[in-house]
Amino acid sequence: MSDPIRGVRQRLFDRIRSETDDKKIHDDMLLLGFWQDDGELSGSEKTILQRQDELADELHNLVADEVEALDSENMIKDLRKKQSNKRKAQHREHRAAREQAKRERLHEWKARNKTEILYLGEGVSANLNDSVIDAELLKHNKLPILSNAHDLAQAMGISLAELRFMSFSRKVSTLRHYKQFELSKKSGGVRRIAAPMPRLKRLQYWILDNILNQLPLHTAGHGFVAGRSILTNAKGHVGSEIVVNLDLENFFPTIIYRRVKGLFKSFGYSDQVSTILGLVCTEFDFEQVTLDEQHYFVGSGHRKLPQGAPTSPAISNLICQRLDRRLAGMAKAMDYRYTRYADDLTFSSKKPARHVQKLLWRSRQIIRDEGFIINKPKTRIMRQHRCQEVTGIVINKKMSVNRATRRRLRALVYQIEENGFDNKQWDGKTGLAMLRAIRGMAQFILMVNPSQGKDLLARINKLKYPADAVPGHTPPTVLSKKHMRKKSAAGELPREDWWEPVEKVEEPHEEKSVVVPPKPLKRKAFRDKTKPKARDKTREPAFDKVVQAHYDNLVRPPKRFGWKAIVFILGVIAAGTYAAIKYI
């Protein structure tokens, strides 16, 4: 029995192997007990069956690939979807990397900002990283060696934060480092004065005494120079046959920030230090604007030398050195003498006047080439037969003050001695201001010609103005100009109670991790995600309809009347109205 049964089993096995997955059926037969272990195949047959199964799997995969290749649209969609997902993943990674790099740069900038000045405003911060100096040139000029902002702040006796605050350039702000007021000119009009506040004036005094006053000036410049004055400016022109006066228009405002920075750079300082020094010594022209009960100072134009800063005269003298050399050389070649007091240029000659027009033309060309403008209405040519004045001093034969001014002053002093101060004025000033003005004029006359001013000043000093009649009289402040300048030049505090700003200490805080936004769902993905699971319709058909209707109301927006429906309704209404009017 065993042989026939074994023969039947073998034939059945051969038939199953030829029609189905042999190995799987074989394993299932053994597992279910239909075949016994003695019916197991030999090793070679198992290898053949395993190889057939592998080939069948490969064939199945090839057929699947062929089907996908024939369906080009789906293949392109899948390819695009893969590329899109890859790009989005890369975009999220790059965004996270950028956020991390941004935080690192911010931390680095805050750390460097404590020891360096990295930004001082728009248009002036380009070369703040340059700290290269010319040490040999600085030593030759006997100037302090300062390579960066930290050295400058330490030399001035202030913190780096205060130096940054005082030199920061902003066109719109709610505060200013200058107090602006106007003074009337003798020739008419007003002159705007921008006086620096004490904290900024302290820095400017340091720059003036430690840098600007250490450099030599041309011998033709007499304005705001120690040991020189309007007397030395006028002395060389006494007894001249012809005197020519020229005036430079808008002298200080013509010298802008770029020229001031270049001046400090020429001394041997780095771009960083030159930028800071140039910003401390210049300022915008500001106008005060009120918006929502808040006062703003709005700047215009370029930064320029302010009239009222202690550094402006010295900077102008240093910038005008080449102008002085060129004009002095031109004047010498034409037998003229040249001097300059601030913006007043004077040429004179002991010989009979000649080549005056050539002198004016050459002077105009040189002045324009140096970046200045001549004030034509103030150009004067004075010959020997008329009153010749240089910076307010008559120089025809000797130096003296105008005779009409002296007579007017003597007459006023006599009237005060006889009748008192009532109804008396001098150049629009009355009371105590008038007394100070005439005392100053008497001292000016004494300086120019002692024989003319000695007796007049003695008479004025005897005049006493009642102290109780001085409205708003206040005693002078304890901090004098001389004391403040001396302390500022030494890098010390002007007084013991001088307020100093304290740097803000930042509290440590935990770093927040980069928040990657969730991947947005498309409409189809949203529908697939939110759609309820399918139910057995044979058992609960009504339930599926309710769920589908509820889903449609949630996902799909309610339909509204479109423009076609509105046009149709309006057309029906119009037709009905027309028919009613025609037939009724």
Largest sheet: 4 strands, antiparallel
What percentage of the residues does DSSP assign to strands (E)? 5-15%
Instruction: Report how far the terminal alpha carbons are from each other.
Output: 110 Å
Alpha carbon gyration radius: 48 Å
Low-confidence stretches: 533-540, 553-557
What kind of oligomer do you see?
A: single chain
What would you call the structural class? alpha+beta
Q: Give the strand order, joined by hyphens, for the main sheet.
A: 7-8-4-9
Mean pLDDT: 82
Number of beta-strand segments:
11
Structure, explained:
- Helix 1 (2-19) packs across helix 2.
- The protein is an alpha+beta fold.
- Helices cover 51% and strands 10% of the residues.
- The N and C termini lie far apart (110 Å).
- Residues 533-540 and 553-557 have low confidence and may be disordered.
- It has a four-stranded antiparallel sheet. A three-stranded antiparallel sheet has the order 1-6-5. The chain has a two-stranded antiparallel sheet with strand order 2-3.
